[in-house]
Amino acid sequence: MENSTFDRRQFLCRAGAVGLAGLSLAQPALAATDIAEGYGVLVDTTECIGCRKCEYACAKSNELSDLPLEGFEDRSVFNEPRRMTADAYTVVNRYDDTAHPERPTFIKVQCMHCLKPACASACLVGALRPQSNGAVTYDPWKCMGCRYCMVACPFQVPAYEYDHALTPKVSKCSFCFERVSKGGKAPACVDICPPMCLTFAKRSELLTLAREKVKAHPEQYLDHVYGEHELGGTSWLYLTSRPVTELGLMEFGEKPIPEYTEPLQHGIFKHGVPPMLLFGLLAVATKTFHHKEDE
Amino acid sequence: MFHKVRLTIILLALALCAPAFQGRADSGGASMSQKADTGGDCSPCHRTSSPSMDDLLPNSQCRRPRAHENLREDDAAVPDVVTMGQLTDIYVPVVFPHGLHAKMEAIGNGCSACHHHGEEGKIVSCRTCHTESTDPGNLRQPGLKGAYHRQCLACHREWSHDTACIFCHAKRGALGEAASKPDPTDITGKLHPNVTVPEKKVYPTEEQEAGSMVTFHHKDHVDLFGKRCVDCHQKENCSRCHDSAGPQKHVRQDSHEDCVKCHDTSDNCAKCHKDHEEGPFDHDKSTLFMLKEFHKQVACKQCHTEGKFAIGKKSCKDCHAPDWFSKAPKEFDHAKAGLVFSEAHKDNECEACHPNGLGEAPDCTACHDDKAYPKDLPGQRVPEAPEAADGNK
Question: Which residues does chain B have within 8 Å of residue A53's beta carbon, measured at their own beta carbons?
């Protein structure tokens, strides 16, 4: 933790040394082809019963809270929709269905792990990066706390440790990166889910599975896999029985957020045109004024 | 000789029972034959024409069909209580009242409602197919934990409105012991309480015509017409009765679906859709065939053998002739016709009183000048027994 402060200072020094060369430090997102074969999770919201075991497993696995299991059995939390916080990388919300009051829909939300993440594009220091296994990871050692990612994220996922005055971190689901990449296991929430409504597999396999489910039970699912195309695709995919707008999920187009911002940014700084132009103009101006003084 | 008689009796008994066995086999056979109906092609229900155990994915036409329903030949083989304890970690094993659920299988969707996708003719337990963790090679088949939960919750989340884990699971204490030990005997043999059959139901059918309604005499269908609950109540969900929050579930989407099994609903809507509540079934009024006391005691299906009441046996001779008229008199017990002869009449030939033919009203004038049937009788009436009419001697 303390290191991160040091690290930030160090980073700023280095950044200063680099000066105003105009080089963008934003890391270009990985090409979509690199991560198309990454992992994902298919959330079958029609099977979710709102037991909040995923919240419990997440908190335990990421050491976010020492709340015992009983702490997650309180169902009154469903009375208000919740957002992710620094202590909760994932939350489950309930959305009542007036047509079927006996079957409310429960929606688990967490980082969607976009294939072309806006947070990573906005991050000045490359602390957020899409990985080839489908996760979008966060490196607190690089983070300087600008919180651009929180503004950039279309799903409003990243939270911030506002109560850590000296070493605050951005907090969001890590896709249990360590468990998945080193332990060969599924994320903690997937492992614990009692009705197994979370399926962890290669994203392409999940899309096939989702399409099969929709085809086999058109009365149960809407013919739309949320996350398949939204904003260029996300690693987490949702099957729902109701329009996503009724379920606290926002509708998006297919164009990834970075494709709106990056052409502008990158276009300006391409081939060092602005500095060359700036210094060229300066050179011309200096020379002109020098000539005038000489005269 | 004695053995021969005994053998004959046994054979006779078997022969008499045969229709009963036949009936049982038929009732279950209907579901078994679903597969045969498609001529060996499984694609109407499955995605592929010849599914394997690895690829049983049903298509959109099929939701856990009865195609693989097993016939529950042996009730003793149905476990009363199943303790599910393979996956216990946070909680202690779940004691599942299997018998309680099995007793309701007919009204639900048969055993296959839960034991779906099984090999035909066999009931297999969940863990036969569902491995403890999901097989990465077969994402369509959830692991055992998912299979258990989805199966139970499919109904329970609707009718109990309670999906809290503690509803089924008892939690482990600090030492791994159950906080309260579930007692398997606690639920053993518990059955669904008897359901009260409603007298009648009046369904408003305003969409057909203003003020229109259908009176359904539920009790008549059970008591008189011999309908079993499962004849109409098939593929029911517990929440249909138990879900108080969803009253709309109690209305059938298409009530004709059930009625049409016996009634022709294709024309003459006014036969059922009336502007007033209809009284209970009255054979005299509805069929113009007056039932006198003897026939009133005959079970409907004695005459209406086809099950469909409109196609009943129309002629008395279908029951009473030719055997009855020619042979029966020799052994005929006249008491069955409601009259026990006095000593003076006991040995009369049948034709002496029934000169116009057996089954016709008697004529006393051959012997008596001052007697006439039915004012005078040749004996005593059997208490509450029928009048000698309708073809009785």
Answer: 165
